[in-house]
Amino acid sequence: MNVCVVGAGAIGGLVGVKMALAGADVTLIAKGPHLEAIRKNGLRLIGPDGAEQVVRFPKATADMTEVGRFDLVVLGLKSQQIAPVASSLAGLIGPETVVLPLQNGLPWWYFHKHGGPHGGRRLESCDPSGELGRAIDLERVVGCVTYPGSEVTAPGVIRHVEGDRFPMGELDGAETGRIRAVSQAFVQAGLKAPILADIRSEIWLKLWGNLSFNPISALTHATLSDICQYPLTRDLVTHMMVEAQQIAHKLGIVFRVPLEKRIAGAERVGKHKTSTLQDVERGRAMELDALMGTVIELGRITQTATPYLDTVYALTKLLGKTLTEENGRLQIQRVA
Which of 106, 143, 197, 220 has the fewest C-beta atoms under 10 angstroms from its C-beta? Predict the structure, then answer.
């Protein structure tokens, strides 16, 4: 399979290395020191057990206009990073290309083939101008949920913390030849990629935790287990998740696990820093609109009150605004 990974960071880089090791022809799109390190030394993946694998990517580049079209385009960018490169993405996509977004939160394509009164609606929180819908043919898109935890620890180095599941599915729930082919490619790469008939419910299941744990971690610099084990923040997480659950149920979403089990699952991950906290510590923009803005927007659409979500969203957005204006980052440092 001819694969292009756009955004070879924590998750995209993990997928790129795994697929290349399985024999896929992989092109990486990256930039800056990370790209320089990949070109010079290859991309190094450190597994959960400490084992290291290094893969050379001769086609690693920052220029999407020079690489042609692909069987599979994996979008490993943060949700807010897609729009600025949307026009270039179109050049990677042919009439048979599958586009596999790996973003957290609710995606810009959410209501495509959704049916019902909201079918075809645009989620303004993640695609305010409609640019993504115009640049990326929605018929090419397959839904996917990313469960692995990983991080870029240095340019050209990715540490895979835990997890290997990438559930995926067609937007209309059909089991097509192309979804089977993509799933099989992931399986051959040593990843789990079950095909789901209801990918939106799986997206909500992961989002259920992300929309609460991620912003709270950004504000408090606490890890998943810290948030779960501190009674006040565990209670706040519960209130936020209840609001989101009410919205999701109005949209026909069924959660396959109860709320307390979802929180317990996050607690078991341990002292893991969420991706949003990692962004704060490194001075990168947070993907709050996909994680929270979209849910609050759906709250308005479904006439569901979201006071807890609104409050945490406002605080975290202001934090992001301050960090951007100051070109800064926040990290806790021991004083003794």
Answer: 197
Name which of 133, 28, 152 is nearest 90 in CA terms: 133
Q: What is the pLDDT of residues 44-98, one digit of tens each?
A: 999 999 999 999 999 999 999 989 999 999 999 988 899 889 989 989 999 999 9
Length of the chain: 336
Q: Indicate whether 113 belongs to any domain.
A: yes
By DSSP bridging, strand 149-154 and strand 157-162 are antiparallel
CATH for 258: 1.10.1040.10
Domain that holds residue 287: 200-326
The set of catalytic residues is 206
Please give the backbone phi and psi of residue 310, each rounded to the nearest 5 degrees, phi first.
-60, -45
* Dist CA 274 CA 291 (whole Å): 12
Give one DSSP letter per residue of 21-41, joined into a string: HTT-EEEEE--HHHHHHHHHH
Cβ atoms of residues 179 and 169 within 8 Å: yes
Domain co-membership, 49 together with 185: yes
CA distances from 44 to 143, 151, 158 (A): 27, 12, 6
Cα–chain center distance at 56:
25
CATH of the domain at 159: 3.40.50.720
pTM tops 0.90, yes or no: yes
